[in-house]
Write a structure and sequence with these properties.
The complex is a heterodimer of chains A (443) and B (292). Chain A is α/β, with parallel strands linked by helices. Chain A has two domains: 200 residues, D-Maltodextrin-Binding Protein, domain 2, CATH 3.40.190.10; 210 residues, Periplasmic binding protein-like II (D-Maltodextrin-Binding Protein, domain 2). In chain A, α2 links the parallel β1 and β2. The mean pLDDT of chain B is 86. Chain B has one domain: MetI-like fold. Helices cover 73% and strands 2% of the residues of chain B. The two termini of chain B are 14 Å apart. A two-stranded antiparallel ribbon of chain B has the order 1-2. Chain B contains twelve helices and two strands. The chains are: A alpha/beta (443), B mainly alpha (292). At the A-B interface, α1, α3, α19 and α20 of A face α1 and α11 of B. Chain A: Belongs to the bacterial solute-binding protein 1 family. Chain A: Its main location: periplasm.
Chain lengths: 443, 292
Amino acid sequence: MIRTTIRTVTVSSLALIASLSAAQAKTEIQWWHAMGGELGTKLEEIVAGYNASQEEYTVIPSFKGTYPETMTAAIAAFRANEQPAIVQVFEVGTGTMMAAKGAIYPVYELMADMGEPFDPADYLSSVVGYYTDTEGNMLSMPFNSSTPILYYNKDVFEKAGLDRDTAPKTWAEVEEFGTKIMDSGAAPCGFTTGWISWVQLENLSAWHNQPIGTLENGFGGIETELTVNGPVQVKHWENLKTWQDSGLFQYGGPTGGNDAPPKFYAQECAIYMNSSASRAGVVANAKDFEVGYGMLPYYDDVEGAPQNSIIGGATLWVLQGRDEAEYKGVADFFSYLSSAEVQADWHQFSGYLPITQAAWDLSKEQGFYEANPGSDVSIQQMTLNTPTENSKGLRFGNYVQIRTIIDEEFQALLSGQKDAQGALDDLVSRGNVLIREFEAANK
Amino acid sequence: MKRTIFPNRWLPWLLLAPQLAVTLVFFLWPAGQAVRQSFLREDAFGLKTTFIGLENYAALFRDPQYLNSMQVTAVFSISVAVLSLGMALLLALAVDRMLGSARIYTTLLVWPYAVAPVVAGIMWWFIFNPTIGIMPYVLRQMGYDWNHGLNGNDAMVLVVIAASWKQVSYNFLFFVAGLQAIPASLREAAAIDGAGPVKRFFTITLPLLSPTTFFLLVVTITYTLFDTFPVIHATTEGGPAQSTNILVYKVFNDGFLGLNLGSSAAQSVILMAIVIGLTVIQFRWIERRVEY
């Protein structure tokens, strides 16, 4: 509580200074984001491009730390009535943002109110589907969306006597290839993965067309319940435990799995699953070997697999309570952001998905995918099939905490405290408690 | 104690005013807010607020995770207190025997106290990192597979060491001062009467150090309850599977990451009550019983 107050005081004094200096002609638009490092520099470049392209508005990007930090900062600012016009929120915060009806300005409404030309059909449905309500209205503007793909070490594959140009397609192949790699001594570990929650549970479910929760994975209402303790998920987690015991799989840690990338870069693990936006990092770090790309593995005995993968990353939410003039600027800025040139540039630089068909086409035209093999795996995987209600995405309240529960239960599984069924059952019951709390608070 | 009498009635208030204002704005007001918030159920944005009485507290005591956090905190606090007080006393006794070089040792041993808790946490995180750290490597040679990312006991050992390391310096300083205050004649007299070093320590030094020890015990426990937040945040983040999720870290996690402000506020009120309790014990009970 002490921290909230201090934060509120700082935020409000900063905002005061900002508003005093903003008395000039141009309308200033605050954009709070969570893009650090190279992505942050690129983001500022895009904003500078927009500010130079017109006279009326100045967008001011501010880096607010990690995704959770940015989101909580914006919420604290909203409570103190000092919110930015635009805030970047990660996909697991979607449920919380959507439920805050009086706090958010849905993008489709904003564009209509401001008379900005806007056609939802221009956007890739597999990307924006995650952020639309049940009536098909787009609530936030996708900015950086990615999906997990498979990376592998071609040189290690060859050393193990495997074909260097064939990525494993099924989990059976992952096991087979991994065993060969370990037996031949080409590498001490078969595979590792980032984001257990996102890759090995949520995407696993969508990829096999298994429900993550009731009511269309929560899209249908906040009365939803988790259902990830189904047979496919249980079998997969059981396998992960077995593979971890035999050394075929190495755990990269909770949340994003910080220990996973070094294992792949150091050629310890031959296969690595993580976000398509990790591509730039993988290419930069894989100095001594060649990287191959593939889609996520699937179990071929599950009917309907592979379906399509789901996204992660973040979108831009517009917050209520700013001046009309600013919203005009926001609408104008969003049009600029989703233009084919800006999108294609951002997509090619970062490995995030292009959010519009036009940006995808432009990248094809420019020959980007031929020059950078593997860079289109993510889009192919996203658009492999028309999304079903199990593979559109997910939307649960308090999901930030549920993500933590997923990690905790997975750790309990790996350390042998629970079996796969037990861990997933506990995950579901603990998660449902949080979803019920969220329902009670938002009724 | 000598009482100072101010001739003017207002002057003492005026002199106290800045401190009182700070206390009011930064401590009492937020604490009051926390108490208020703990009776409410609210969504993250504060759009819908419902008064639910003690439901937040009741939910906490029904929640196995919270009870687990209490248990974890107890284990953590007691371990840190024992380790940091024990080490500090040992070092202080060693320094007390030094004649010329005591000053240098004292200075060197106080250094860790100047290190920010986050830095201390990160440093220990590096030393114990299962992939790149030196300790897991050494331990593996000895046949122990260290992995605080999965093994809750390993994680607890790590945070206890990281949190104690810093506090040893502080406790050490007080012990050195305490030892110096013990008249040498007492120990000499005992030595002449034939008491060995161990006997002298337990019958003379330790009882005479008891006020210092009790004071440090309360300070250390308060430290483990609040100031260890950065250590946990930089090393285990409460994991694996909540095995190092101490109360103060849970307050942060539920409030600032989970945005469950009602529950988070209720937890901080409970934490506040624990510390008030400790302080009362220190002032009312220990200060009266311990001989100065």
